[in-house]
Amino acid sequence: MSTPAPSTTSPAVDPQGQRPVRAQLRLVPTPGPGTPPVPVTRLVLRGVPAPRPVALPGPRPGTGGRAGTPPLGPRGVDRRWGALPDPAPLAHRLLVSTLEAFCGLRPVAQLRSAYTLPVFTALTRGRRPAWTSTGTSPVLVGPVRVAEPVEGVAEVCAVARRDGRAHAVAARLEVIDGRWRCTALQVG
């Protein structure tokens, strides 16, 4: 074995030649405008519930507030011309159409405009509940219950019945580009 060659470079030494000098770094502020802070992305871990934003209380349903303000709809949302339509009839049509597509009575492509791209992609993958593909009786969807936690978001649920069995169906609708679109769907 050979011995390592001696180093030809020597570390920097202080003026008296006693010990090596440590390099010192000093932070200097950057001239000009600072960079905007980067938002922190928090990941949701499996089994840990996602943090939900705190919803501020809104106006009481059916009250117009100050004089001259328009009356509010049944869930406290302004329903004037040009404002958002009531999500309940749309949610009922959406759930019925989706279950018809699952049962093979309607092409899934007809649902494209009602869903966001990730949800529609999941619908077209072919994974469907077994109860939608078996049996010949029609799927009956009960009354749709709508909750609007904040303006522009509606959480809807209903009970679907087929062959004497009941199944829960839930969806989340959000306003995207001025219209209600489904951003999440759960069929039990």
UniProtKB/TrEMBL annotation:
<protein>
    <submittedName>
        <fullName>Rv3235 family protein</fullName>
    </submittedName>
</protein>
<feature type="region of interest" description="Disordered">
    <location>
        <begin position="1"/>
        <end position="38"/>
    </location>
</feature>
<feature type="compositionally biased region" description="Pro residues">
    <location>
        <begin position="51"/>
        <end position="60"/>
    </location>
</feature>
<feature type="region of interest" description="Disordered">
    <location>
        <begin position="51"/>
        <end position="74"/>
    </location>
</feature>
<dbReference type="InterPro" id="IPR045596">
    <property type="entry name" value="DUF6459"/>
</dbReference>
<feature type="compositionally biased region" description="Polar residues">
    <location>
        <begin position="1"/>
        <end position="11"/>
    </location>
</feature>
<dbReference type="Pfam" id="PF20060">
    <property type="entry name" value="DUF6459"/>
</dbReference>
